[in-house]
Amino acid sequence: MSERLLVLACGALAREVLAIVQANGWEHVEVRHLPPKLHATPRRIPRALEEALQEATGSYDRVFVAYADCGTTGGIDEVCERYGATRLEGAHCYAVYAGLAEWDALQEEEPGTFYLTDFFVRNFDSFVGRPLGLDRYPELICDILGNYRRVVYLAQIDDPDLRERAEECAASLGLEFEFRQTDYGRLAPSLSSFVSVA
Q: Which range marks the domain in which residue 51 is found?
C-alpha cells in the first residue's frame, strides 16, 4: 500500500505543484496550500505553516513543504525540523524556478532585478500595483523601485498572453524586460525525490 503523502505548498506555487502531481499520476499525494498573500509577510509564514502541520499530524506518513526559506531567515526550517518535514532548497521560489546556480548568476549579473513568475504576472495588480499604491500614485515608482534596472520573467509555461502581460508589467514599472523560460525548474525534481523516497 502506498504511503500517504502531503505537499503543503505556498499558494503562489500551488498551481504548479498540482500540475506536477497530476502529470505524474501520484494519486497518493495530496496537495494543500497556504494563502499566497503570506508571500508579502514572510514573518507570518512559520506560524501559518506550523498550524497546517499540526492539523495534518497523524494523517500522513510524510510531508513536503513547498516553500523555500522565503525571507523567514530560518523560521520555516525550525518548523520543518519540529515536524519532520522537508522543504524546497533555496532562498525563495525565484531560485527554485531559475535553478540555484542560475539564480546566483542572475543576481551577480544585475542585483537590481525585479522578478516575476507566472503567478505574479497573473496577479501583478493585487500583489504589486495595489499594495504598493502604484495604481493610485504612479509617481511612487521611482521612490520604491529607483534602484531596479530590469524585470526578469521566469516563466513556468509557454504562454504568449502571459509573456505579453509580463512585458506590460515591466513597462508600467519603467524597467527593461527580460524573458527566461524556466519551466518548473527545481520544483519538479524536488517533488519527485520526495515522492520516490522508500
A: 5-93+185-196
Q: Say which residue the cell 506555487 belongs to.
A: 13
Per the structure, the count of domains in the chain is 2
pLDDT 10s digits, 134-158: 888 888 888 888 899 999 999 999 9
Grid cell at residue 148: 531596479
> Rounded to whole angstroms, how far apart are CA atoms 167 and 92?
23
For 87-145, the pLDDT digits (tens) are: 999 999 999 999 999 999 999 999 999 999 999 999 999 988 888 888 888 888 888 88
Q: CA angle 123-53-69, nearest 5°? A: 55
105 with 72, same domain: the answer is no
Q: Which residues contact 72 (CB under 8 A, 6 or more apart)?
A: 42, 43, 45, 46
Question: Could you give the CA distance from residue 32 to residue 17 in angstroms, rounded to a whole number?
Answer: 10
